[in-house]
Automatic annotation (TrEMBL):
Cellular component GO terms, alphabetical: cytosol
Coiled-coil region list: none
Enzyme class per UniProt: transferase
Assembly and oligomerization: Monomer.
This protein's record includes keyword Nucleotide-binding: yes
Catalytic activities: (2R)-3-phosphoglycerate + ATP = (2R)-3-phospho-glyceroyl phosphate + ADP
SUPFAM superfamilies in the record: Phosphoglycerate kinase
EC number assigned by the record: 2.7.2.3
Annotated organism of origin: Kribbella antibiotica
Name of protein: Phosphoglycerate kinase
Gene Ontology biological process terms in this record: gluconeogenesis; glycolytic process
GO MF term (any one): phosphoglycerate kinase activity
Amino acid sequence: KTIDDLGDVAGLRVLVRSDLNVPIKNDVIGDDGRIRASLPTLVKLAKAGAKVIVTAHLGRPKGTPNPEFTLAPVAKRLGELLKDEGITVHFAADVTGEAAQAAVQDLDEGEVLLLENVRYDAREESKDESQRDQLADELTALADVFVSDGFGVVHRKQASVYDVARKLPHAAGGLVLAEVEVLKKLTEDPARPYVVVLGGAKVSDKLAVIDNLLAKADKVLIGGGMVFTFLKAQGHEVGKSLLEEDQLDVVRGYLKEAGDRIVLPTDIVVAPEFKADSPATVVAADAIPADQLGLDIGPDSAKAFAAEVAAAKTVFWNGPMGVFEMEAFAGGTKAVAQALTEVTGLSVVGGGDSAAAVRQLGFADDAFGHISTGGGASLEYLEGKELPGLAVLEED
Ligand code: 3PG
């Protein structure tokens, strides 16, 4: 069901689960992409005259209130962004307590209220269904209908994502629908060649998705920290680079199964230390010195990866190619991002880190086919797993 299927929402209290989990340091928001991506649904509901109540999380405060994880700066940013639309944003200092209840009472039609970090309440993430159920009841008491729009959390079986949807008339918000539509295109009959670029620190985080993508993609290009486990599995020394010894056998299996469909870098940018000003040199991927660590794919590899990407009709990219936050090790990530902007078919950037990388490197969002707001959620979707937050929306 979509928001339109809910009928006239004027005057109704609409509880929206958004994913507003953005990087914040000293009260300053880094990349506000997720806040921006949540706006269309909130604007649509507010303009239709709903009283919009937003529940969301920030970080992992583990069930205890902690000022480090307050959503107050997010409420402020939301207020700035919605001001142009003439929409007022309020903030409640608790999740479902007195402050939240009073704020809902005072909320006018066409206004937005953001509730405090739902993960301040230990019941949100509880494995005990009856605990989650209690919190879901409290959230449900604040609202008449529920809209699920936090795509980044649909892989979590949590009270504000899953249990609430079982208790209220519900619909998928525009962001969830848009994300699912794109991911469907990747899994069902992608236009070929279909090229996947995978980076990030750990192979172990991505085993299931690699399995699945190896079965679907024409080429899987590997960069980032995980590449050193692949190089080692091929028999090369990797110096002080990141290495997951316990994954070597699994990776050997991938290399055997996929043959030349797995593309590894041929050169690597190395430095003696993990530091922005550590002197960087380029070495062959099979000749990483013992006292150095790899921090980016090298320029020849960046060119080769870019050529594979540019020739593709469908591309999915997850995970930076190197330590892009440091100028000397940003070349690989920049080259891949640039190549993605040149794809004539569908280009998808998935995952919080990759989305932050492209924005930090100065690329505009609309240069890509789609930037997913979901990290874990988009990977789990591509693994072919059932996502609880989506499955529950299919129920009556
Ligand atoms: C994310 O950052 O991917 C989502 O907000 C989910 O956060 P989580 O991994 O802490 O559940």
